[in-house]
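As promised in the previous annual report, we have extended the structural survey to additional targets. Below is the entry for Mitochondrial distribution and morphology protein 31, mitochondrial.
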Amino acid sequence: MGQVRPMKMDDALALLSWFFLGHSIFILVGTTTFVSVMIVVTNSFNIQDYFADYISELLTFWTGYNITFESASVPWRLGTIRLENVKIVCNEETWKTLQKKIAYRDGVEYNPGEVNTNFAYWDTTVESIDVTLSLWRWLDGRGVVKDAIIKGVRGVCDRTHITWDNWEPARRSPQFGDFELDSLVIEDALVTICNPRQRPITLAIFNAKLPTFRKQWLLYE
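The corresponding structure token record, generated without further manual editing, is:
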């Protein structure tokens, strides 16, 4: 302040502004580091279960899949956040439960009969998922995940209940929040795909490295 005097309101506001701006820039630029510090703190105070439940709820709302995981760790050598023993489920029950929560949050009436469940159901487990995060990307509408490494995938994709009525192929329109990963690595994946009136198909991926992975161009990439 340049002199010895009591702190004024302007001084307090300047200090709070500096504190808020500094932390905001840190979160935007170093999102992965910020979340890593949060994980270390929660593990130190033995509140990782509450943190895991909170992150699971966020991931469920962001993706539409019911995502739970056993633990989160920070492998500093890789500079990523690791989720271990991840369970990913999306079926009629989980989708209706999510739509009910969204309706309650938005203050609108929930009608189970109007919920569309004519899509593929997933029931998979993943040994580990390493991700790097970027809040800048999320604000830009490209999703919060920048890079991902997925290992040890096992599960089933159930499409036996899907029906088509006058279906015509159409290019998917991009939406705000669609993920756009700068890189995706998949190791040791084995998924069984069940289609209507066909025998199950097994999809195996031993090692895949994709330079980009975007929801808008999912099949192409």
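The chain has one domain: 9-214. Residues 9-214 form one domain. These points will be discussed at the next consortium meeting with the crystallography subgroup.
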